[in-house]
Design brief:
Layout: E1 10-12, E2 38-43, E3 49-55, E4 61-66, H1 75-87, E5 90-96, H2 98-101, H3 114-130, E6 138-143, H4 145-156, E7 163-166, E8 171-172, E9 175-176, H5 178-181, E10 192-197, H6 205-213, E11 219-224, H7 241-259
Parallel strand pairs: 4-5, 4-6, 6-7, 7-10, 10-11
Antiparallel strand pairs: 1-11, 2-3, 3-5, 8-9
Helix pairs in contact: 1-7, 3-4
Length: 261
């Protein structure tokens, strides 16, 4: 059965101090995606390899993404981000954690995320030394677990201009954990771009709205259709890849429209 509507829904919580209307992508027909120009592996200081997908090299501005906990490469998402990176003049790097690169039985992240923080710093150093992108021109971000790692780096590196939090974890056992998991974020004065799916059980809309509502001056929040992976489903609860792609493309255009504003 065909879906009644093919529109993708995005809801923006606007800051009263900084509002912006953007043309959202709502046509699910063949949304754009762009594969990385190169994929390479480099060693971390502890001797484990990480993998970098590099989109649109040669730009003076960069974006670095740390992914979620799973080892699914999510090319459906990052290739669409890469398309917008090209259009907006950014080099984009997507990191794959070392525990995903090494293969074998799934080990998962380190208990205190120390290894993942080293992975992220190694990728950031590579962007500076090999892609000639200064930290002052590098926006960092993460999705899900990657938001913890990117947040830690952002708070310890004031030269980084902005932070992206995609599907941050803000709901645990029915409790709003935003302030606990991202301590001090509300006090800094650099832009923070945040997006969740309206059906994301790891960051419920009410908790997300409760946290950002009082700190709207520097936050750029978005609630988009979908779940923790921004996925949309058909009436049989199967992932609709066409609408999911359009949904993610809308997110990509919103995100790069803001950071290039």
């Amino acid at each position: 059965m065909k879906l009644i509507s093919s529109l993708v829904l995005l809801i923006v919580i606007h800051s009263s101090a900084f509002a912006m209307d953007l043309p959202f992508f709502t046509d699910p027909a063949q949304p754009e995606a762009r594969p990385p120009e190169s994929t390479l592996r480099i060693q971390t200081p502890r001797g484990q390899p990480i993998e970098l997908n590099i989109y649109n090299p040669g730009m003076a501005k960069g974006v670095l993404f740390g992914p979620g906990q799973g080892c699914n490469p999510r090319r459906d998402m990052y290739d669409r981000f890469g398309s917008e990176a090209v259009k907006n003049g950014f080099t984009m790097v997507k990191l794959t954690w070392a525990y995903c690169v090494k293969g074998g039985p799934y080990a998962g992240p380190s208990e205190d995320l120390a290894d993942e923080r080293e992975d992220f710093t190694t990728a950031l150093t590579y962007m500076k030394e090999n892609l000639a992108i200064a930290p002052e021109n590098t926006i960092i971000g993460g999705k899900s677990l990657g938001t913890y790692v990117a947040f830690d780096k952002f708070m310890s590196a004031p030269e980084l201009p902005a932070l992206i939090l995609l599907t941050p974890i803000c709901t645990v056992n029915g409790k709003n954990t935003f302030a606990e998991f991202y301590p001090g974020l509300e006090k800094q004065t650099r832009p923070v771009y945040m997006a969740i799916g309206m059906n994301d059980q790891l960051c419920q809309v009410s908790h997300f709205h409760e946290y950002v509502a009082g700190h709207a001056k520097y936050f750029r929040p978005l609630i988009i259709a979908g779940d923790h992976g921004f996925r949309l489903y058909d009436q049989l609860r199967q992932v609709n890849s066409e609408l999911t792609g359009a949904n993610i493309m809308g997110l990509a255009r919103w995100l790069f429209g803001w950071i290039n504003h």
